[in-house]
Amino acid sequence: MTAQGGQPGRRKLELAQDRITLAHGAGGKATHALISAVFLEAFHNSLLEPLDDGAVFKTGVAGDQGLAFTTDSYVVSPLFFPGGCIGDLAVNGTVNDLAACGAQPLALSAGFIIEEGFAFADLARIVEAMAAAASAAGTQIVTGDTKVVQRGKADGCFVNTSGVGLVHPRAALSAASAQPGDKVIVSGPIGDHGATIMLARGELGISADIVSDTAALNGLVAALLDEVGAGAHALRDATRGGVATVLNELADASRVAIIIDEAALPVRPAVNGACELLGIDPLYVACEGRMVAIVSGAEAANALAVMRAHPMGRGSVIIGEVHDDPAGMVLERTAFGGTRVVDMLTGDPLPRIC
Amino acid sequence: MTAQGGQPGRRKLELAQDRITLAHGAGGKATHALISAVFLEAFHNSLLEPLDDGAVFKTGVAGDQGLAFTTDSYVVSPLFFPGGCIGDLAVNGTVNDLAACGAQPLALSAGFIIEEGFAFADLARIVEAMAAAASAAGTQIVTGDTKVVQRGKADGCFVNTSGVGLVHPRAALSAASAQPGDKVIVSGPIGDHGATIMLARGELGISADIVSDTAALNGLVAALLDEVGAGAHALRDATRGGVATVLNELADASRVAIIIDEAALPVRPAVNGACELLGIDPLYVACEGRMVAIVSGAEAANALAVMRAHPMGRGSVIIGEVHDDPAGMVLERTAFGGTRVVDMLTGDPLPRIC
After folding, report:
1. Pairing of strands A317-323, A257-261
2. Residues 242-281 in A contacting B (C-alpha not used; CB under 8 Å)
3. What percent of chain A has a predicted confidence (pLDDT) above 70?
4. Which of B35, B46, B222, B246 has the highest Cβ tally under 10 A?
5. Any idea what DSSP says for residue A134?
């Protein structure tokens, strides 16, 4: 699950409408309400309920490490965009969900739902991008499935990737483990992917020199866990709903306050510019190659150093810290010296970003 | 993968068109051509290439049994049909792909792609059916994902289910392991699911007293493997493309001939009637709760007895046997004493059956 509610204190929101809206897929408040009201209601079990990026379990065979298991469907539009396509996006997204569980990928699956009339050449490009991305992450696509629906019953090509991974022996990660005194690290500039997709749709009539940050973060996470082990308390890749939504999930699950500094947030000028035109805060814009790490205060300097030394974490910075109070909330100290509440994403300003 | 080519001797078919057609999703010849030309070309690796119902691998941790991993996307239309819905169909299908690898499910994932405007009540029905099916199979849905696309960009609701399973310690199954002298067992009447979907669409203007056979076969497979172990050479659940396509995959992968008896094929009269009206051979009509088992001649009687003693295998019968020659082919001895070639499914007489 890339959309999470967190335990305890999960918000059981009422489902005001009786039909699905785009906001239910945006990763923010409506998604959490849907998950609570429909999915958790039916699927309740101890592995699902933490609503982490993947589930971690033992196989029951003596001596085994934990396995992580995750799934994501991709419906990004357009299918091809600067810096990537739905194929590498799907592979990297699933690798990153495993990484957020502290796991290295053992194997990936690929499921395709293709609209009749879709060009083979485009499918081949997508599939080649998946193979390259899997190889870059040190893993393979080992099983798959293809379905075709009639023209007009899908939108080109949808991709599901699921992944199985082996949890790092020193990992002790959980969305509920953030503690007062912890530092919040983000592994690089935020919002690149979402801003790239917005511009690629051409609706803004502007162009800018940004590309998606889609990338596999399993190597970065391995380096981090090798260095700080259980000093890393929680990891999340900041996809739908952006860094703001991820921090809200963690604050909610851990019953802590997270306070970030606006001045510390790494945002590229071109991303800032696109967000200003659209009236969207970059904190809510999806990244597809950035990890948010909550690390103990004592290990924060080590963690930052090892992340910066990794090719996928050169832009890592500490953006805030964890406090006791107000539990369950995210606050931002603004550049003007004030403090504002950073809520979870509401509505869906950017449908089909991933 | 529920659509398989088999190794060695996989047919590398030319892709005559440059666009995807419905036949590419039907599980027959066009699907195999697509898999060879696009997916295997890009994803080539030793775990994928056998094109079994799932991939089996070791986790690399000392002392572990093999893990099986599989994925399937479901686009069945209509979403609700006599005997089930897309939800239990998806769960049972993935459980059965694991079972065909000789594995019991450890955990399942669920990925939803939902069209804007879809009714919550329908989603809730689907999700409840998934939970019930998982419970019946002794497993759980432990991770998930939800995406929403704009109205007109999907068709109600598509579901992906992936699964991780633990391989039976005595399993020695492979599509390439069928040997001359083996018997071919099918676990019950064939074509019920496909015929039910055809009738549920209402296009034929007839009704009949048939329901989908969607069911989890992991218990049946466990009973079989407990009894005959490595005496079971190959298992496949007969979904898209029906029993004919599965037998062709096995004959091709094992480089053997499979000869079946028309008189032995279990087909319900109502299914036969619907198939006659449509001009479709029941051998090509999908089942969603029937296993095809290739078992050594020496163990065939034991296998049949244990399958018949299981609630999911009461209708098990031996439908044929494996021969040397003509390698790679499936033949049927007809009721009139002749012999005909049973080829793999061509085209797609029944789109979106699963």
Report:
1. antiparallel
2. none
3. 94
4. B246
5. H
CB within 8 A of A16, min separation 6: which ones? none
Cis status of the peptide bond prior to A266, with omega within 30 of 0: no
Q: Per the CB < 8 Å rule, is B148 touching A25?
A: yes
| Residue B59: predicted pLDDT | 77
**Interchain contact B24–A (C-beta under 8 A):** yes
Query: DSSP string spanning A64-79?
Result: PPPEEEEEEEE--SSS
pLDDT tens-digit readout, B111-138: 999 999 999 999 999 999 999 999 999 9
A 10 A CB-CB count for A122 gives 18
Structure tokens at A259: 């306070």
Q: What's the N-to-C CA distance of chain B in angstroms?
A: 13
* A279-306: pLDDT as tens digits: 899 999 999 999 999 999 999 999 999 9
Residue B57: beta bridge partners?
B67
Enumerate the CATH 3.90.650.10 domain ranges in chain B, comma separated.
Answer: 183-341
pLDDT tens digits, one per residue of B227-272? 999 999 999 999 999 999 999 999 999 999 999 999 999 999 999 9
Residue in chain B lying closest to A98 (CA) = B143
Distance between terminal CA atoms of chain A? Answer: 13
What is the pLDDT at residue B16? 60
Best CA proximity match to B56, nearest among B185, B223, B168, B224: B168
Q: Give the residue among B139, B162, B142, B165 at the shortest CA–CA distance from B56.
A: B165
Å between A115 CA and nearest CA of chain B = 7
Q: Which of A271, A263, A280 is nearest to A318 (CA)?
A: A263
Query: Is the pLDDT assigned to residue B2 strictly greater than 90?
Result: no
Closest to A144 in 3D by CA, of A107, A115, A93: A107
- Give the model's pLDDT for residue A15: 58
Quick one: residue A77, left, alpha or beta (phi over 0 = left, psi -120 to 50 = alpha)? beta
ipTM of the complex model: 0.93
- The minimum CA-CA distance between B119 and chain A, rounded to whole Å, is 4
Note the CATH architecture for domain B183-341: Alpha-Beta Complex (3.90)
